[in-house]
Amino acid sequence: RYISVTGVQTCALPISLKLASSTSADPQVQTAVASILPKIVRSVTTDVVWTQRHSDRGVEDVYTVRLQPNIARTLSEGLKPSEGFDPSTFKWLPSTTSVATSYDFWNAEAAWRSLTATIEGQVGPVSSRTVEAFVAGVFSTYGIEDFDTYLAAGNSQPLTATLSENPDQRVLISSALDEGKMIRSLCKDLNYQGRSGIRKTRDGRTAGFQVDSTFVTGETAAVERLYPNGSSNKETLADVVPKDLASDYLVTTVGRTEDGVGLYTVQSKFTPTGLERRTVSAAGFIGLLVKSVSE
Fold first, then answer.
1. Helix (H), strand (E) at residue 91
2. What is the tens place of the pLDDT at every residue in 123-142?
């Protein structure tokens, strides 16, 4: 199957609106992001090639968003995976988790520089700074106040998750190489000592705890669910992750189907020709897309 750049642009607007509205409550930020993302798509995308086949887990869709050659080369070099997806990264999460996404950057700082430089080259410095502020705002909901310091702490394999159908129950799990920088990146108000081992902001909305070099931060109720309290023998998301997931992808998402019983997976990576995404689900990619946009 083939989708022209015109078709890609048609899909870009509703998806951009959905992304902007779901990750920021600021109307000005929503409007800015919703206007910038389609411009980026128009300037870097050439076309989309899409294949579909049936697998043991349902419908497998593999599609490549082909990019301008120089853009594809820059992003494939700058945003390359490290050692590949490891299912054990989901060991912190209960098997009932609504959706979880694992990232595996070779170098998160270099990846961010590559991405922002590409965006600036397409839409200019002002729009690029808007996107940077948007991303920093997303991380602030997890208790990260200084995004640049967070990246400098060596957090190249972060994990984000929504534990239930309530979109507010979100957490960020980070394995920092530099614990000092990681601590400095956190919200300065994240200092009120709550229940043993858990720190909360004074308004009680955001919380976090540390186990060795792993930091868990985010919405308070979600963080409290993950706090080590003798639940290590319970089934985790790592126990139920499909075994056929490829290991050479940059981003891996595992989510619950609408009925809460089955799982769908989405894996993404940049290649020398563009962005490749592989989804496996009962409904297929179009079903997932329609569900995402309509929610």
1. none
2. 888 778 888 888 888 899 89
Two tokens, residue 224:
């409290």
Phi, psi values for residue 214, rounded to 5°:
-100, 130
What is d(CA 101, CA 95) in angstroms, rounded to the nearest whole number? 14
Exposure on the CB side of residue 248, measured as CA atoms within 13 A: 4
Give strand ranges (E) for the chain: 2-4, 45-55, 58-67, 99-103, 159-162, 170-175, 192-193, 199-200, 206-211, 214-219, 251-256, 263-271, 274-281
Considering the entire predicted model, what is its pTM?
0.84
What are the backbone angles phi and psi of residue 279, rounded to the nearest 5°?
A: -120, 145
CA 151 to CA 157: how far, in whole Å? 10
Cβ neighbours, 10 Å, residue 295: 8
Which tens digit of pLDDT belongs to each residue from 136-170?
Answer: 888 998 999 999 999 999 888 899 999 988 888 89
What is the C-alpha separation between 169 and 206, in angstroms, rounded? 10
Residue whose C-alpha is closest to residue 64's, from 45, 42, 84, 43: 45
DSSP state of 88: G
d(CA 152, CA 70) in angstroms, rounded, equals 27
Could you tell me the sign of the dihedral formed by the alpha carbons of 86, 180, 206, 292, in that order?
negative
DSSP state of 105: B
Contact (Cβ atoms closer than 8 angstroms) between residue 239 and residue 232? no
- Length of the chain, in residues: 295
